[in-house]
Recover the amino acids of this structure.
């Protein structure tokens, strides 16, 4: 049973436009959420996080939105750049990283087209 | 500051053998977590060590074990290898166990069981 779902395996966006990556979760105990970016043959790189006491967190071109009632979060990248092409993983933890470590979605492959 | 270092990068083993993977966390980080990434299951949490103690464990058989040394370096061992153990094994370090801290990943060890 997948507790963190990324329903879009891939997403294609034009350079300069906004990329929106979505993530849904089912475990209401999750209270900390993270986004990671992964290039082939490399480990995931931390991008941005948000705790459940907030509904938005920004860091440069990256903004994460959290809708607790819908158990949904999204990552916005504005403007999208060619170097953003990678696989993006959404991750969640309960009680700030408790018994089950981080629970990851299966990833969305973002392709930025010139 | 050096990142998380995993060795070896690639490994080929035969069914029934055992294997040991190594992870050196970021200097000053005391928490080391291990994850298995496969195409079908995505990233799955194996276990976490903090100050030489296993804090958390994922849903993996007892053939998967680990340990952490006083310098925070960690090793993961898989005994009686099966074909299904072929995966990318990722190690992540963080400054705290649990809490709202990000995990920083190494490049991973690609294990192939033949």
């Amino acid at each position: 049973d997948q507790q963190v779902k990324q329903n879009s395996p891939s997403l294609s966006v034009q350079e300069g436009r906004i990329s929106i990556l979505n993530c849904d979760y089912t475990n209401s105990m999750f209270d900390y959420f993270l986004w990671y970016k992964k290039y082939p043959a490399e480990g995931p790189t931390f991008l941005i996080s948000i705790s459940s006491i907030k509904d938005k967190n920004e860091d440069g071109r990256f903004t994460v939105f959290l809708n607790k009632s819908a158990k949904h979060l999204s990552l916005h990248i504005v403007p999208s750049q060619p170097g953003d092409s990678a696989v993006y993983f959404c991750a969640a933890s309960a009680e700030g990283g408790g018994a089950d470590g981080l629970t990851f979605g299966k990833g969305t492959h973002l392709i930025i087209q010139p | 500051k050096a990142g998380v270092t995993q060795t070896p990068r690639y490994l080929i083993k035969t069914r029934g053998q055992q294997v040991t993977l190594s992870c050196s966390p970021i200097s000053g980080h005391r928490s080391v977590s291990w994850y298995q990434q496969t195409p079908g299951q995505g990233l799955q949490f194996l276990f976490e060590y903090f100050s030489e103690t296993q804090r958390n464990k994922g849903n993996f058989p007892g053939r998967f074990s680990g340990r952490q040394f006083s310098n925070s370096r960690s090793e993961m061992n898989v005994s009686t290898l099966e074909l299904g153990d072929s995966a990318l094994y990722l190690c992540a370090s963080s400054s705290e166990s649990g809490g709202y801290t990000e995990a920083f990943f190494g490049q991973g060890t690609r294990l192939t069981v033949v």
User: Anything to note?
Assistant: Residues 31 and 53 of chain A are 8 Å apart (CA to CA). Chain A touches chain B at residues 32, 34, 36, 41-46, 49, 51, 89, 91, 95-107 (CB under 8 Å). Chain A is about 0% helix and 55% strand. Chain A has a mean pLDDT of 92.
